[in-house]
Design a protein that fits this description.
The complex is a heterodimer of chains A (500) and B (93).
Chain A: E1 4-5, E2 8-9, H1 21-31, E3 36-37, H2 40-45, H3 52-59, E4 70-72, H4 77-90, E5 94-97, E6 114-117, E7 124-128, E8 133-137, H5 142-151, E9 154-155, H6 168-173, H7 181-184, H8 187-190, E10 191-197, E11 203-206, H9 219-222, E12 231-238, E13 240-241, E14 245-253, H10 256-268, E15 275-279, H11 281-288, H12 293-296, E16 299-307, H13 309-325, E17 329-331, H14 334-342, H15 349-353, E18 357-366, H16 370-382, E19 389-397, E20 401-410, H17 415-435, H18 451-458, H19 460-472
Chain B: H1 2-12, H2 35-46, H3 56-60, H4 64-68, H5 79-91
Classes of the chains: A alpha+beta (500), B mainly alpha (93).
Amino acid sequence: MQSVIEGRTAHSEWRAEPLPAAAAAALGAIVGPANLLQSIADRFAYARDRLPWALFQLRAGRLPATLPAAIVSPGSPDELIKIVEAANRFDVKLIPFGAGSGVLGGTLPLSCEVMVDLKRLNCILEIDEVDCTVRVQAGMNGGQFEAALSARGYTANHLPQSIHMSTVGGWAACRGAGQASSRYGKIEDIVIGLEAVLPNARLLKVRPVARRAVGPSIKDLMIGSEGVFGFITELTLRIQRLPEYEGGAVYAFPDLQSGLDAMREIVQREGRPSVMRLYDAPESRLRTDGIEVFKQRPILGILKFSGPRGLAIAETALAHDICSAHDAIAADDAPYRHWEQTRYQSYSIKWQTAGYCMDTVEVTGSWRVLPQMHARMGEAVRDLHPDAHFGAHWSHIYPEGACQYMTVRLPPMEHADAMRLHREAWHRLESICLELGGSIAHHHGVGVFRNEWLREELGLGLELLQILKDGIDPRNLLNPGKVGLRASPGAVTVPPADMR
Amino acid sequence: MSTALETLRICAFCPNTCRPSHAAEAWLQIESQTPSAMSLLALAYLDGRLGECSGVIEALQRREAVRESRTHCTYGFDIDATLDAALGAASQG
């Protein structure tokens, strides 16, 4: 029911219920008027995250979902508690917002919720050099966090491509992974304690200890909850000293199976390179142009070894022996150097601005099924359109399996056709993943865009999550409709039913 | 004008890799002040989706974060100057 100006919807037609005056007055009194934003323009800026589907809508002049009713920015956990108390009093729904770098729509307002921007909670509270831990507020920028640790001689070794455009709390909220996950684990392995404000405005404290046996992990109720169970306000993370030694190695494998076998064998024989990256043929070609050895051995593998010199050198030798046994040849390290130089950049911009529909899908598969998963998924995407691009790499490597990270790109075409094919690509990839026993998400989370496939993976587990949600948040105040949980009455669906 | 619009489109859909250029202070961390958000707002204003009553004019004048990002853009853009060029051209018809 949107009016159209030259094919684009005007703001007067957007769904944009404002914050009721009494609630606005209460929130403004808590944070001060400068930290409560209510203009349409400000609300428009918060009406998206980096969900590519939302970007496609904006590019076509459409609003992805609704406008948030307002944006409130607490300057302390106490202010946040008061905000949640007010939300309960006025029945205002809230969405935690970090830096908006999520790619599954986890912060999209589906029913004009209030965005709670946590970026004012942006300090390192303590570095414990005996325990090698850091306490940090959730809204601190990832790049600034690592820079501050580095200045003290430490690193958290959580180094996602999005480090400069994400917050520490966002890493935990979406259960993210960094580029050094093969050695240091995902964020759930790095966080050892946290504080969070629950929907009833009480402060949950999970004390930071190395391990515990006090029932199921409360910490893990919050890590990956994407704000549906509470606001993470503070995290305690493991840190390590900056590495004494860092070195890279590049290998050319004759085929994908030999590369996968080598990666599996390295970790199963207890080698732990800090970075392990294997690319399929299309992704390898983009990175090896002009390097002779790749003409005969077209599959690129990049390894990085970090830590105490003796240990790193030993791991380098172990990995070299394994790769060589799989008929790989050590190659010029230009691809490694290029990766190091560009590891925190985004590759999608040139395609998105040129009218392509580019997206990434990351799933987890066991070693037994990964070759089949790659072959079937590639075929499923290429079958959609003669000019569809499918490429994949594996850069989160575990003894039991790996994350298959796929890039899908559709050429410019009419918007409705593109959205139909884009959705079909997602459906095919997630369905094949489920059929082969994998997980539909390795580290990007569920947000709203993966709701459709979550039930098949979690089964009864999703009912358990809903029971927990109903108990913790009986009025469904926090981020309703995300992570497969119940939406607010009248909420928009993403994508709309007629686009599925 | 067309170059400025093209730059704004790239910036609007960039995930804000320049974000750490903004000091870790409250005022500069507001999302609608980031270069990517400012570019998105400018495009919506220029194509008529955001009218003047939306507060977009005031929002586009908050340039502190955009200026801080000048030397941190992955693509070498000066979004402050680009906003001036695009909005200036529009105001001259």
